[in-house]
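Fold this complex.
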Amino acid sequence: MKVTVDRNSGFCWGVVRTIEIAEERLQEERELYSLGPVIHNPVEIERLRVKGLTPIAHDDLARLSGKRVLIRAHGEPPETYARAKELGITLIDATCPVVTKVQERIRKFYDSGYQIVIFGKKDHAEVIGLVGQTDGQAVVVKSADEIGNVDLTRKTVLFSQTTMDKPTFYDIARVLREKIAEVVIGTFEESALDFHAKDTICGQVAGRDKKLREYAATNDVMVFVAGRNSSNGKVLYDICREANPRSFFIEQENELQPAWFAGAATVGITGATSTPQWLMERVQRAIETIA
Ligand code: SF4
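Structure:
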C-alpha cells in the first residue's frame, strides 16, 4: 500500500507567519498569551503551549495588565486594540495581512456610506473583526436566503470572510444585484501580495479546491487531518469527500481505523490550512504501521 502526503496541503503562509511571530517572541520571553487558540488545531496548540504560549479568552484580558498578548491570524475588532491600550497590555499583532487588507477595505467603504454585507459565519473570529470595522453595523449572511436583513434601498458592498466558498459568494452577489440598484463586489486592492482580485476569498484556500479534487480522485482512500472546529477544514473536507467518498476526517493518528484501508492500494493524506506538515507525516507513519 502506497501512502502519500498531499504536497499542496498544510499551513497557508498566513498561519506560518503567525506561528513564526509567536515562536520568535517566545524566544525573547517564555510568557506569551494568544487571544483565542492561535490556529484551529489542538495538536499544534499543545506544541506551542509547551513553549510558553497560553490561549486566553477576551474576559481574561482584565487580569493581564503589563503582559504580552498575540493577536492571531483571524484579526480582532478595533475595540480589542482600545481595551488592550487601556489595560497596559502589549499587543503583538499577527493578523494575517490578507485579513488586514479586508478589514481596511471594509472600513473604507463603511466610511463612504455604504451598507456592508459580509458573506461569512457571524460567530467566526475573523467575521467579528470585520464587523468591528463597521461599528457592528455590517449584515452577515451565510447564503442568498439570508438577505432579509439587508436594506435594499441603500448602496451596498459585498465582502467575504476569507475562507468561504466561491459559488455561494457569487450566488449572493447575483441576488443582491437583482434587488439593489448599486452593488459593489468588494475585492482586495492591487498590492504586492499575490491576491485573487475578484472577491475577498483567500487564494490560499480557493486555489486548493482543484488540486485537492485531483489528488483525492487519484487515491483509493483519503485521510483528512484537521481540527474539528476549523472552518477551512470543513470546506476542504467536503471537497475531498465529494471527489472520493472513501474519505475520513481525523484530528490525530489515534483515531485511525484499520478497516478503512481494506483492499486499498493507495492512501492520500491531506489537511486544512491549519494542519501542520509534521502531523500529516506522523499520520502517514501510523497508517504504514497499522494497515
Ligand atoms: S487562509 Fe488566507 S487569509 Fe486565512 S490565514 Fe491563511 S493566508 Fe491568511
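The radius of gyration is 20 Å.
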